[in-house]
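HUMAN: Ready with one sample?

ASSISTANT:
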Amino acid sequence: MRYVFLLGGLLGFALAAGTALYMGRGPDRIFFDGAVGCLCGALLFRWLWSVLLGGLRETMVARQRAAAAEVAKAKPELSSLKS
């Protein structure tokens, strides 16, 4: 999680500062825009990471439930064959 947060901050800073530099703003404004971009990028990446992890968790739980249901469905057939 920490690395995703740092990566988002770095990309946000680079994008915002690069855009401000391209627009010809002063050094103080470039740094300010970069700082705001850093914060926004970090928070955005954190949110996206939590959404991604939530989706992966739901997928894993759904697969486990499906596998358990398949095993439970196949188990009575095996017990009837033994009798």
In short: Residues 2-82 form one domain. The first helix runs from residue 2 to 22.
